[in-house]
Amino acid sequence: MTTTITISGAGGQIGYALLFRIAAGDLLGPDERVRLRLLEIPQGIGAAEGAALELQDGAFGLLEHVEVTDDAAVGFDGCDLALLVGARPRGPGMERGDLLAANAGIFGPQGAAIAAHASSDVRVTVVGNPANTNALIASASADGVPAERFTALTRLDENRARAQLAQTLAAPVDTIRRVPIWGNHSATQFPDVSHATVAGRPVTEALEAIVGDVPAWLADTYIPRVAKRGAEIIQVRGSSSVASAANAALDHVRDWVHGTEDWTSAGVVSHGEYGVPAGLISSFPVRAVDGEWQIVDGLEVSEWAQARIDASVAELIEERDAVRALGLL
Ligand code: NAX
User: Fold this and answer.
1) In terms of domains, do 144 and 179 share one?
2) Domain range enclosing 282
3) pLDDT bracket for residue 258 (50, 70, 90)
4) Which pTM does this prediction carry?
5) What is the pLDDT of residue 94?
């Protein structure tokens, strides 16, 4: 079998980190051959072509073909998995409305090109920010493609949330489970430890012995640390998260395709779960079963947690309404 994977923004930093891992089999495993489509804008074509040359030099046995293009019709032709990484960053003096409009101008046409040219069971993961609303715009423009096929990446936030708990508890990160991210991939996101476990034991119980006042630690230390981790990386590294973002994107797509053992987090379309208005793309606790994300339903959510979820969802509503007001949705 060969899977066709389209990466928009493939000439950028995250693209560069993604390509070689996909070619090496880190996404779909050692038995699945891949065909890569590198979609760029004209200014990014040189970087993408350079990456394509390096992919050749990697002599990856699983890599069947690489195509570089600035034409979305070619880029999404027969695409099974799309990673939409290329986005318009906020420039100096750019208002939020300008940013949303610029990105609607990218993700609207890409959604339409996906509907016209991708394979009928295409799965789309939006990485480029504002990821949730960009996914919503792409989905709204993709006539005939179920809204469930458009997702936004919040797995990096979850990985950060689990890693911070692992550090605090001095526990291996893979013993920490069920730490969903709710809401928007932004500083309003809510990393939720209320159902989390460490080696099967409630995380809140384990935290009490270490941090004392758990609610205060969550509100003042943990949640801001996770939500602002991207800014911390920029401050320390002098550049935004790249390899960790690519790693999370691979985690997200791999789980979507191969399924999950337990919960994880993804920005998926709401059907009204947990008070999130239907149609918004919000992060939820999810499982992947038979190639579909399913929102984990029926969780007990405290008043405090619901208020955090609602605050992040309010931001998503504002973003959606701003795009609607511009006539772009
Ligand atoms: P770069 O600026 O290095 O790369 C972006 C690439 O996209 C450039 O090569 C550019 O030419 C290309 N591009 C722009 N418009 C395009 C279009 N219409 N079609 C195709 N390609 C286009 O940014 P990078 O560091 O790779 O980050 C990419 C995006 O990921 C940004 O929007 C960033 O904010 C977002 N992130 C999202 C994360 C998440 O967890 N959802 C975390 C990491 C990252 O911040």
Assistant:
1) no
2) 155-320
3) very high
4) 0.98
5) 87
Instruction: Looking at the CA of residue 47, tell me the nearest atom of ligand 1.
Output: 9
Considering the domain boundaries, does residue 329 fall inside one? no
Give the three-class secondary structure for 294.
Answer: strand
Q: Report the domain count for the chain.
A: 2
Residue type, 260: T
Torsion angle, CA of 162/164/168/173, rounded to 10 degrees? 40
- Separation between Cα atoms, residue 131 and residue 287, nearest integer Å: 20
Q: Is residue 199 one of the residues assigned to a domain?
A: yes
Residue 37 belongs to a domain = yes
Pocket lining: 131 vs ligand 1, CB cutoff 6 Å:
yes
Same domain, 178 and 118: no
Q: Write the DSSP string, 187-202.
A: TT-EE--TT-EETTEE
Nearest protein CA to atom 36 of ligand 1, as residue: 128
Length of the chain: 329
In terms of domains, do 163 and 282 share one?
yes
Alpha helices in 182-228 (DSSP H): 203-211, 214-217, 223-227
List beta partners, residue 293: 288
Residue nearest to atom 11 of ligand 1 (CA): 44
The answer on pLDDT for 90 being more than 90 is no
Q: Is the pLDDT of residue 92 over 90?
A: no
Q: Which amino acid is at 160?
A: R
Residue pair 197/230 in contact (Cβ under 8 Å)? The answer is no
Q: Is residue 328 part of a domain?
A: no
**Residue 55 sits in a domain of what CATH number?**
3.40.50.720
Interatomic CA distance for residues 177 and 196, integer angstroms: 6
